[in-house]
Amino acid sequence: MNQDAWKREVEQRLAQVKLRHQPAFAELYDLTNAKLYGLILKIIPDEGLAADVLQDAYSKIWTNADQYRADLGSAWSWLCQLTRNQAIDRIRQRKRLNETDDSTVVEDFSADTSTLWPEHVDLGRCLQLIKKEQQNVIISSYVYGWSHAELMEKFDAPLGTLKSWIRRGLQELRECLEA
To answer: Do 83 and 115 belong together in one domain?
Structure first.
């Protein structure tokens, strides 16, 4: 099945799921679970936890299908966004439960960046080249999905400073990765 036909199938199945059609939900799962699981694994490299998040995502898809609006985007985009948000929520939840200190944010993340982005194995090396506060803010924001408010609270810094750290850190990462 080509990509366009696959996307049409996903659209049709989600439309049926909105009407609480259980066989369509099973078909939607069969069409999308491998891709959504892959998406989760890019965010959460732990396979067991990723499987739990996938299950939670499908529960949320079932209960919130009526909120999908085709005029705002494709069904596949909606499924990806909902699943991504579920993964980020799980990371935040675990982070709050563990309440680790700031220094472990980078250590936990950069321990094995090859599993997160195998096409960018130099990312961990480049992260080590930028300032520690830039590393922590970038990872907290882009990997763990922290909001501006959470960043300001955790790093005890004004929003403008945090944005500057992110901007300069991303510029340095870009330069390092392009070298």
So the answer is: no
